[in-house]
Specification:
single chain; 142 residues; alpha+beta; Translation Initiation Factor IF3; 4-stranded mixed sheet; 5 helices; 35% helix
């Protein structure tokens, strides 16, 4: 039977023996699998609620050491953080506040078993446990 015949197959009118002109066979393994799935879905009168742990990608603007606590809270929630360090760089590219903040974030990431990397001059990405940042290993130029 051609593909179009399968898609647009003739159906019998309601009241006839079957609605479809074709019969399908179901083997015992399929029936057992379907029954097994149905019994797993049935509960003892209580509805099961599926709790999904949602993770987010959040951008946090860092203005100083006090914002590291917010990064820590997001890591504990399992969220990925992109830290915008633009405000810290305005004081000068090598400001002490910027260095202290980054070092403190590195410490938090190490304790939480996360990962941290610089994306650009403005952004740092911080990931929770279980999410690693892929780094390209540059080939040595000879």
């Amino acid at each position: 039977m051609g593909l179009l015949n399968k898609i647009f197959r003739r159906r019998k009118k309601i009241g006839e023996e079957s609605l479809s002109t074709e019969t399908t066979t179901v083997n015992e393994e399929d029936v057992d699998f379907i029954e097994e799935c149905n019994t797993e879905l049935k509960t003892s009168g209580e509805e099961e609620k599926l709790v999904v742990n949602e993770r987010y990608l959040k951008v946090i603007h860092l203005y100083g050491l006090t914002d590291v606590e917010e990064v820590r809270n997001e890591l504990e929630s399992g969220n990925i953080v992109i830290a915008d360090i633009t405000a810290l760089k305005k004081d000068g590219g090598g400001s002490i506040e910027l260095k202290r903040t980054v070092e403190q974030m590195k410490g938090v990431v190490k304790v939480k078993n996360g990962d941290i990397a610089q994306l650009s001059d403005r952004y740092i990405i911080i990931t929770p446990p279980g999410v690693k940042i892929w780094r390209r290993v540059e080939e040595l130029k000879t």
